[in-house]
Structure formats: C-alpha cells, structure tokens
Design brief:
Layout lengths: L2 H24 L3 H7 L35 H23 L3 H27 L7 H13 L5 H9 L1
Helix pairs in contact: 4-5, 4-6
C-alpha cells in the first residue's frame, strides 16, 4: 500500500475507534452507530438524489418571475386548426370515399416516417447512416409533413 493510502486508512480507523468509544460513553449501542452511518468510505461518495449534478442540493436556482403574455395570433391559429381538424374528421366519416381515407392514412404514416426517421433520427441526431436513395425518399417524406425544411428542423431540434 502506498504511504498516502496507509495514512488515510489509519486516520479512518482512528476515527471509527473514536466514534465507537464516543458511542460507548454516551450509552448508544454499536448497532445504533451503524444505523447512523451511510455505509460508504467517504461521505463525498454518497449518491445524491440529483446524481451529483448540484453541489448543494438545498440551494436550487429559481427562474425569475415574469408575466405570461397571450399571443392571440397563435391562439386563433391553433383554435382554427383544431376546429378544421374536427370538421375534417366529420367529413371523413360522413362523405369521404374509402380511397380518400386510405390515401390520407398513408400520407399520415409517410409524413411521420419522414419526420422521425429522416429529420429527427438521421439528420438531427445522426443515429444511423443512409445511402443516397433512402435520403431522397426520406427528404420527400419530410416535405409531405409540411414541417419546414429538414435542415431547419434538425438545426432547431439540436439547439
């Protein structure tokens, strides 16, 4: 054992002996002493609830208070889009041909694939490599989703 480790081990054993004798003097049993200990060699090795991200867990930063603002343009746009979707669902059930319903479903699946497999997994996270033909297909599928260019989607998702 290196001299530093021997000195550290000696001081730890000395502190354990002192704690045991203090427990004996105060009338506590050795099992009580074991219940109070964390079971780790050094207190800095104890797992924290945040995984050791914050030095002092009792001191957490709080965001400054700000007044929330309603953006009426967005509220109106989202409201209109949801009402239009409900009207579209009503038309799909009452008057759309089955070919239209199947085409809409296929476009839904294809556009979702363009976003998840293309813009998200391939270009934003680069979680796999694809050859040129698959990239072309995924960029077309991404275009069907109308969620901006794949370049902008990946850039905004990474930031």
């Amino acid at each position: 054992m290196p001299p530093n480790a021997q000195a550290g081990a000696q001081s730890i054993s000395d502190s354990l002996i002192a704690a045991a004798s203090a427990a004996a003097d105060s009338g506590q049993s050795p099992t009580k002493l074991q219940e109070d200990s964390t079971g780790v060699l050094f207190e800095c090795d104890v797992e924290t609830t945040d995984g050791g991200l914050v030095k002092d867990i009792t001191v957490m930063k709080k965001a400054e208070k700000r007044r929330l603002k309603l953006v009426w343009r967005n509220i109106i746009a989202f409201g209109y889009l949801h009402l239009a979707a409900l009207y579209g669902a009503y038309l799909m059930v009452t008057s759309a041909k089955w070919q239209t319903v199947i085409t809409a479903y296929l476009l839904y699946v294809v556009s979702g694939l363009g976003i998840t497999a293309g813009a998200h997994r391939l270009w934003a996270h680069r979680s796999y490599k694809a050859k040129w033909p698959l990239r072309v297909i995924l960029i077309i599928f991404n275009t069907i989703a109308f969620q901006d260019a794949a370049y902008h989607w990946a850039r905004d998702h990474r930031v």
